[in-house]
Design a protein that fits this description.
- The N terminus is likely disordered.
- Helix content is 68%, strand content 0%.
- Helix 2 packs parallel to helix 9 and helix 5 packs antiparallel against helix 7.
- InterPro entries: BP-dependent_transpt_permease, MetI-like, MetI-like_sf.
- It is found in: Cell membrane.
Amino acid sequence: MTQATSPTSPTKLSAEPRVKPRAKRSYTLLAGCALAGLIVLLALVSLVWLPYATDDTSGGRLTGPSADHLLGTDKLGRDLFTQVMTGSRIAVEAGLGSVLIAAAIGATLGVLTAFAQGWLDDTLSAFLDILIAFPTLLLAMLIVAARSATLGSAVLAIGLAQSAVVARLVRILVKRVLAQDYITAARTSGTSWPRVVAGHVLPNIWPTLVVNLALQFGLAVLAEAGLSYLGLGAPPPNASWGRMLQEAQATFTTAPEGALAPGILLVLLVIGVNLIADGLRDTLDPATRRRRA
């Protein structure tokens, strides 16, 4: 007599394949790339093609949008779309140039000052705080007085001002990494400090540093626009968005597109870069991903 198998006791184990969970897409990062990418594309196109020459004043004063002039003309008869395209290139150049200067100087100073101890550590920390409190506009005026009002002077001033912020962040991050046990183990095994920095320190701080540099890009674009608004940026016929806003403020009621076009693009670029920074934080920081899961 055969004994019936209990329905609760399976006779065969079913082995289902384990599906690897898919990584969540960062829609914030995608949205930021889309917004900033449009401005970057406009800047790249301006390198090879412009509707009109930047100093062409044959369009008539303050004409409205038309087939010949998509955004109209300014008070001198220059094509506004041409100026907007040129301004996008200047904004991207200012952001990239400033961030590169800030990253090169700030990261180097931050790593070096992280090894300081005692009174030297306190002195360097106070020095970085003083540099951060130094106004970017005043630094730009000093550089312009020594050189001239050019885009290079504005980028140099912004980059130097931002390098102090990057240096302080890198210093804090490096000190945190140097306090870990695996750094002590690496040093005990005879690993030199340059190898420790290259193999252990930099790989652990670069995610946070990249996010901060993305934020600094947006701040640099705003700073360049502010300097150009005050006449300390790229000189004419280079049409910086800040200079366009300054020139269009007197005719805003009669020709608002002269101020709206550069203003909207400036806001879109800064929002896009900030969304990219937020998306990178979600993507690169495991702790943030766990909190938002």
